[in-house]
Amino acid sequence: AMWPKLVAEAKDGGADCIETYVFWNGHETAPGKYYFEDRFDLVQFARVVKDAGLYLMLRIGPFVAAEWNFGGVPAWLHYIPGTVFRTNNEPFKSHMKSFTTKIVDMMKKERFFASQGGHIILAQIENEYGYYQQAYGAGGKAYAMWAGSMALAQNTGVPWIMCQQYDVPDHVINTCNSFYCDQFKPNLPTQPKIWTENWPGWFQTFGESNPHRPPEDVAFSVARFFGKGGSVQNYYVYHGGTNFDRTAGGPFITTSYDYDAPIDEYGLKRFPKWAHLKELHKSIKLCEHSLLFGNSTLLSLGPQQEADVYTDHSGGCVAFLANIDSEKDKVVTFRNRQYDLPAWSVSILPDCKNVVFNTAKVRSQTLMVDMVPETLQASKPDQWSIFTERIGIWDKNDFVRNEFVDHINTTKDSTDYLWHTTSFDVDRNYPASGNHPILNIGSKGHAVHAFLNNMLIGSAYGNGSESSFSVQMPINLKAGKNEIALLSMTVGLKSAGPYYEWVGAGLTSVNISGMQNGTMDLSSNNWAYKIGLEGEHYRLFKPDQGNNQRWRPQSEPPKHQPLTWYKVNVDVPQGDDPVGLDMQSMGKGLVWLNGNAIGRYWPRTSPTDDRCTPSCDYRGKFSPNKCRAGCGKPTQRWYHVPRSWFHPSGNTLVVFEEQGGDPTKITFSRRVATSVCSFVSENYPSIDLESWDKSISDENPLAAKVQLSCPKGKNISSIKFASFGDPSGTCRSYQQGSCHHPDSLSVVEKACLNINSCTVSLSDEGFGEDPCPGVTKTLAIEADCS
């Protein structure tokens, strides 16, 4: 239901084309059995893009990586005898060709390819195979060539691409994926320079702080790419959305796939990133004719300063002036004019004279978004029902082994959960004085909850960097028979890597040290196994199971109880703002609304470290560890619930909690823009991109201006900060400098109060007297929206 709005916001942001992966394991649920409904309705998605008047890039893969479960490849394929993924392997190639042909035929039937008059202009086969090809030896090169040739044989009439792939057949275009691709060159000089993935942020893993890429750096990378002859640039991702259900891979990838993208997870434009890139896109399109038809020249303007200049036969001239010094601002001379170039920035001159855009000068406002809580609104006390899982084997065991089995090969990813239970006897003279037994567990990953004699004694986890872990838990044993139940868990299957499908999970060793006779090794005990949970087996999350007799009504749900299912009737949050579910009061588990799987929740706290800083320096090459936020806080506290999943009334929320939490403190929150900020200096480009023409002169340039706008239906209700002079800081933490015009607040209030949007010029007559002659002035404003 979000698709039309998202595509419209991308178009409004200056996009010409929408790119999407095709998720094989979402579509081919069993060999030859296909699913193309609801969120997996690929034809409908393509139609939404077409109806918006945009092109489509179809990245079929069908291996896609994408931090998606198993890289998008169906788990069932791993269990077809003799299959090895992504190499010269007949079973894999046969199924890959079959699925690729299925998708191509669907698109042909709708006449979606450009060769049929449609809007699909590019198609992709495979994905970033160049990273791993060498690990597969001769089979890797043969497979890459086969994949490209198989794609070409589909006769789509549009070009095929392979990203991060250097061995490609003739007529297949190799493309670049990176934070920067300006220096990339395709295999052949006759091929276009295509950037399939510009990463405007980065993904999140449970237990880590959240990465952010500054808009100045994203814009810098794009401007450099087109200055250096780029043809196609795609943001991966412009909108990332949510890894609903168990689609998150990694392992340990969060349910949120926000990615710090220009459109956030909830479908709201992220300011200033979305707007800064919109201005960049307009500026590049002003250069379109010369970029397409002109000849390029590279001019040195200094040791780390240069100009890429394009001139065409009609007299058009375009220049990209770049300062790649990551520390120092520079003044450069180009065509007998001087230009200020901030460090790590590009200025775009569509006429080789006037600067219409500089990547480091963000003219757009910043929109501050908050999660505003509402009560869960369980309208009556008896609306709660619970079901408590049995600890260990429920019903009958699935099998018994005197060894540990691989978790993934056992569950075949039908569930996150696998029970292991065993028992052992302790001498009736136990405990002997001075004994302090320790339960030692080793695991390939990803997580475990340990129960001793029906009591939860501890939990342990790997992380996004290292799935495996070991843990030592002090325990109290009783004389006689003791029972251990270990619930092993996966948190998304591995998404990429050489031979990644063979990377297993699950327990590898269990022993008890500190016993009277040393260490008791339980690894070769008789272990009984049970796949999945009883609540999963009875599908208690489904609406048609609402009256299942296993649900027991409760006037007050139990708190901090492990292995508990909760069901509660909830009302629709008011308004039409996007909705998130605040799970901060819970431990770890799964959650559903009206049978729709919201996904894994886990408000796992990230470490406190020095990677989180109050502000981020955009200058210099970006890496995912450079600008992080949320250290010492839960990686993901809120979980997106699409508005379309709510009924007008009679909504049911189902939560499965593994460790124990307080379900009464779960709340819905509305994602609301509450304030706007802007920080614009006199030397920012002030040319109106909408009405720009090449006859404009900068002899009498327009004054820079601040533009503020609240979301539709809201007005600027108060001005929290205003300073014309040399203020500093970031939104919500601006500070006056040594230079400050005393009428700053009154000028801004006069222009902006009680209206939806306003413009304040830095040459406003209210700022008549220069507060600090000779200093470049800045106007900083923070305003509330309500």
From TrEMBL:
Compartment(s) of residence: Secreted, Extracellular space, Apoplast
Q: Record's superkingdom?
A: Eukaryota
Q: Tell me its EC number(s), please.
A: 3.2.1.23
Arranged from A to Z, the UniProt key words for this protein are:
Apoplast, Glycoprotein, Glycosidase, Hydrolase, Secreted, Signal
**Which reaction equation describes what this protein catalyses?**
Hydrolysis of terminal non-reducing beta-D-galactose residues in beta-D-galactosides
Q: Which family does it belong to?
A: Belongs to the glycosyl hydrolase 35 family.
Protein name from the UniProt record? beta-galactosidase
